[in-house]
Amino acid sequence: MPVARDIMTASAECIGAEDSVSDAARKLTEFGGGALPICGTDDKPKGVLTDRDIIVKALGKGRDPQQTKAVELAQGEAVTIGADDDADEIFATVARHKVRRLPVIDGHRLVAMVALAEVARALLSAYLRKCPGEYR
Fold this sequence. Notes:
The protein is α/β, with parallel strands linked by helices. The protein is about 35% helix and about 20% strand. The chain has one domain (about 5-130): Roll (CBS-domain), CATH 3.10.580.10.
């Protein structure tokens, strides 16, 4: 079964906890993603900021995106997955926390992001390699 390090996006851009929501929006636009991990000065994930968070929690509530810090929009503790956790653990974590993307950590350091869609594709690919004649 594939593990997170086999599935994850090669690198993860992080937004600093003290960076503005405006900076986060620019970074999301630049990298074409829908979510950014929020990292502290220790490189540990403090949460995840999504494009939806920016719209609903900042803009929709009239908050100034240049004055609002990324960490102010994070909810609770950061939900992460270990680089060596397998696909079953990723699915369980996604389901338990009702998220679609997870920061991947190696030790306590952020190394990448993994999306639910990436896990599904990897499992399908592994299955098709295992049973090549069934669906062709």
